Amino acid sequence: MAGNVAKRPNGKWRARYRDDADKEHARHFDRKVDAQRWLDEQISRLLMGTHVAPRHARISVGEWCDTWLDGYRGNRASTVRQAETHIKRIKVAFGSMPIGSVRPSHVRTWCAQLSAEGLEDSYVYALHARLAQVFADAVHDGLVAKSPCSRRTSPPAGKQRPYVCTTEQMWALHDAMPERLRAAVLLGALAGLRDAEACGLRIADIDFMRGIVTPAVQYPAEPLKTETSKSALPLPQSLALALSAHVSRWSTEETVLANEWGDQLGPWALQRAMRTARAKVAGLPSGFRFHDLRHYLASMLIASGADVKVVQARLRHASAKTTLDTYAHLWPDSDESTRAAIEAVMTTRVESLQSPDADSL
């Protein structure tokens, strides 16, 4: 850990030291005071355990993002595409900066600028999360001692109350879709499948006799991301019969949903059909998506008296927290239910005291 500052024949001052791995680091300065300040700073970091080799700290954020993406490409293609979109934004803001020079204040300013551009809170939150992921791996690789991202720099996640269509709107949307795609609305609104799951659903994944659908893959034939997403879903006989009739008339040899050429339906084609159909349904907002049909299922289950665990299971959420964060406002008012429960206890007590056999309060 020893270090020293010495004047070179060319008049420069060289500060040098050895780190804990006995690797030498050196830097030249015009003034001795600057050389000594730099040396003291590096020695202090060594003592505190936050030392990073100076050459690593000079790597730009853009260079590290490229390296990080190369290692990230082992994930599914859709996941990588999303990461690439996030990285483009990150490189615009931080790409030319040395990775060791990014400070929490820079991150907070960036998030504020993104919000000022009009981006949704949830998207700004996702971009911050990606930056935090990139820097966490940089810390693990020894490029920086500490990430500039933390809870203090994180923007609000943004809570949105999803639009829940009415039963009339759901059936109107069903009828407005091309006949070969009407089963997709049933799969979204009554089975809770996501668009890629509906497009990837195979005929073999439906047990028409027992009334069970077990999603196993998403478009085109990729495994689902989590085990929870593979949970079996019960279907009433009427829905099973409707899907069976659809399969007999419109399906491919393997998948339930097919395009106009008889090939497997892609999510983009389903979304395009949704946009056309929703314009024909009175009251549906312009941003209504296939995914919003899952909100209809959740509201229907809650209205029927299902508790949070049942709704979580039918929507295949990994956590009940996700279910509550999204749909808590749909459950009966907790204040009123609390008052009703206490009122029942008090009423029972008053009635018992008013009975002829009661002695006294």
Your description of this structure?
This protein is mostly helical. It has 3 domains: 3-51; 61-140, DNA polymerase, domain 1, CATH 1.10.150.130; 167-330, Intergrase catalytic core (hpI Integrase, Chain A), CATH 1.10.443.10. Helix content is 50%, strand content 7%. The chain is built from 15 helices and 8 strands. The protein has helices at residues 32-48, 54-57, 61-72, 77-94, 104-116, 121-140, 167-176, 182-189, 195-200, 237-250, 267-278, 293-303, 308-315, 320-327, 334-354; strands spanning 3-7, 13-18, 24-29, 206-207, 212-213, 217-218, 222-223, 233-234. It has a 3-stranded antiparallel sheet, with helices on one face. Strands 4-5-8 form a 3-stranded antiparallel sheet, with no helix packed on it. Strands 6-7 form a two-stranded antiparallel ribbon. Helix 3 (61-72) packs antiparallel against helix 4 (77-94), helix 4 crosses helix 6 and helix 7 runs antiparallel to helix 8. The radius of gyration is 30 Å and the shape is extended. The N and C termini lie far apart (81 Å). The mean pLDDT is 88.
Output the keywords.
about 50% helix, 15 helices, DNA polymerase, domain 1, single chain, 8 strands, hpI Integrase, Chain A, three-stranded antiparallel β-sheet, about 350 residues, mainly alpha, 3 domains
Write the layout of secondary structure elements.
Elements: E1 3-7, E2 13-18, E3 24-29, H1 32-48, H2 54-57, H3 61-72, H4 77-94, H5 104-116, H6 121-140, H7 167-176, H8 182-189, H9 195-200, E4 206-207, E5 212-213, E6 217-218, E7 222-223, E8 233-234, H10 237-250, H11 267-278, H12 293-303, H13 308-315, H14 320-327, H15 334-354
Antiparallel strand pairs: 1-2, 2-3, 4-5, 5-8, 6-7
Helix pairs in contact: 3-4, 4-6, 5-6, 7-8, 12-13, 13-14
